[in-house]
Amino acid sequence: MKIKIGTRGSKLALIQANLVAAKIRKEAPGTAVEIHVIKTSGDVMQDVSLLKIGGKGVFVKEIEDALLAGGIDLAVHSMKDVPGETPEGLAFCAVLPREDVRDILVSRGNVKIEFMPRGARIGTGSLRRAAQIKAMLPDVVIVSLRGNIDTRLDKIEKENLNGIILAAAALKRLGYFQKITQYLPVELMLPAVGQGALGLQIRETDHALAGILARLNHAPTAAEITAERAYLLALGGGCCLPIAAYGKTEGGNLFLEGMMAAPNGTIVIRDKVRGSVADAEELGRELARIILEKGGKKLLNLCTEII
Length: 307
Fold this sequence. Notes:
The chain is an alpha/beta fold. Strand 6, helix 4 (127-136) and strand 7 form a beta-alpha-beta unit. The chain folds into three domains: 1-95 and 197-217, Periplasmic binding protein-like II (D-Maltodextrin-Binding Protein, domain 2, 3-Layer(aba) Sandwich); 103-184, D-Maltodextrin-Binding Protein, domain 2, CATH 3.40.190; 218-307, Double Stranded RNA Binding Domain, CATH 3.30.160.40. It has nine helices and 13 strands.
């Protein structure tokens, strides 16, 4: 069997794709695995906000198109880049064990978030991160940030930023531990849906490949991601509002916390549910109902008016 893996071309994406390739070769010795780099709209248009070019789905669309067309056999996605809905004909057959879900701060002079000066310039391209930072520090100036990890790190000096917010998983996979100033606890900064997890997507009809990849699936992570994505989908899947969720399995139980906020951080709605791992999807939908009833519907209406 020969497997063509499709991935974005950043250093981080290639590390992740090669990690999956190595796992496949170990599970199925003799399998030929090739890495195919695919440029996505999100990679090409780095000077435009994600909201204006279609949201986080711009990092996966071209890869999914190649998968449907047969140009590749397997897509490796950072699950936080994947919209709530999966195109017809495609399926996620495995999720790898989750990395650190937290966000981190990289700052000038290693200044922690609680000691940032008034009017500090913080870089991020994420509505979710911006809203939660503004809720903590209302006088912070959010500077829009796009590009790969190295590009963003360089902008601390180039754009005179006090710091930037990134995913811990990304810096850990790149080996950039020494650059991390501070890990931001989930109590302070709830992560993106799917953050820290890698999903393996194939065509639904590729049963032989599904059989191989199923051995790589990490059931606890899969349950967490299922709950988080059900929550996202129930809220609209890709609206213009800051949305966060974090599922955590403990034995047969699943704890799910979710957030929806106004972009400027003046309103933050947050709640949690718990239940059986077997009910992961329903827990996600239940939490979405709670968030909507606590004021999320009004925020969604404002979002629609803005669009």
